[in-house]
């Protein structure tokens, strides 16, 4: 790194000895950088823990709520998928922190080499811009993790993306005022900066709400409710679901590849084409081979650590309780009546459950894998940037992947999911709306399709918002079909809980922003010194 910096100055005909850069870097690392790296490692792990406890739990709320997998299986598979996604599929991990679409005006946090060399030779304070950026990243992680842990304790699914972005806005406002904010591009289809936050808060949730309602209304009314998977109408509906989920999966992984697409096609266009082909192949295989096999099976399919097989246990039958109704004070007038527990009521046939449980498990694993790959920047992006600046404070670059730090974040995400993910899983899986395998699959399916469509259009998305609104849309559709009225559909949703969740989404931005600003202001004065002009 030192030789690259020195060669850069040589090309500019600036004659500074190599030792100056070495001494500047060493002084920065020993007097300031090493302590910030240690703090970033600690708080980055805690932040990844918080993201795992809140964001990662969204993928497993619906399969656990529908009884497709046990909580232990959700923790086990979720940890593996999050880890694999964060380490091997993390593209542009620091794009939301130090990239061109960041809400922070990064140009204000890069020092001029010549000026810094002069300051060092005159024994002045050096690399102040890099120091303020590093400190701001650390305090932003602290503010973000505080809010996400609070939301997890209250069982509120919040967006980790909006939390860390808002925290970054808080610190840069304190340091550089409004100039520190990257207002960004207002184009809806290529939003950046502040507009990225605003669009992500409103566009994708509304889109998912409408799509999940439409998809599940048609699926439930014409296929699931009939309970006859052998009918051609039902078989085509189920195969269409298989087509869409494999389209979304293939598109996501092909689009992650940075190499150019063949034939002069755009990368997103090629990804969509490959997704359509793969989805069609799997849909045909499902229609002619897998679906007939699942239809002929007996019993139910569930996955837990105790078994993964057809479940025909008596414990899964509706449980009965008895109450005695006493009319007079004589034993002859006492009667015993069976009462079916509400939670034991089964409203989907075993045939339908056998079809959707494997699809729901596949969708949940895909959601966890993509969350680990795409949202890892929420907790690791600041840490990665701090590490880059520590290594090379002069002309630092954020292009080389750091697999060790990505693994560190993946471990934190997995532990957060296992230790505290249950709260958000329960909220997503049962408290917003009653969950079934077909409904849960539709939620993850529509959320994945929305993320794919928004990715093609360049509209920022929040996976948390998409999945929550997917539950609402599908729940209303199911209630409408069951009751025969839209009003009956609305009654299936716990709107008091939704009010709290929506409030938490709105409060996330100002809370994280203000908390980050306060923490940075104090830390700036204590660690670096008073602000300029104060």
Strand order of the largest sheet: 1-2
The string of secondary-structure elements, in order, is HHHHHHHHHHHEEEEHHHHHHH
The global form is elongated
The N- to C-terminal Cα distance equals 35 Å
| Percentage of residues assigned to helices | 55-70%
Largest sheet, strands/sense/barrel: 2 strands, antiparallel
Output the number of helix runs: 18
Low-confidence stretches: 1-17, 307-346
Please tally the β strands and state the result.
4
| Backbone CA Rg | 27 Å
Oligomer: single chain
Specify the structural class.
Answer: mainly alpha
Strand content: under 5%
Mean pLDDT: 78
Report what the structure shows.
The protein has helices spanning 2-11, 18-54, 58-65, 71-88, 95-98, 113-121, 128-153, 160-176, 193-224, 232-256, 267-296, 350-374, 377-391, 403-431, 437-457, 463-483, 486-490, 495-528, and strands at 300-303, 308-311, 320-326, 334-340. The chain is elongated, with a radius of gyration of 27 Å. Residues 1-17 and 307-346 have low confidence and may be disordered. 69% of the residues lie in helices and 4% in strands. The relative contact order is 0.20. The protein has 18 helices and four strands. By secondary structure, the chain is mostly helical. The strands form two sheets. The protein has a two-stranded antiparallel sheet with strand order 1-2.
Looking at this protein, list some descriptive labels.
two-stranded antiparallel sheet, mainly alpha, 18 helices, 534 residues
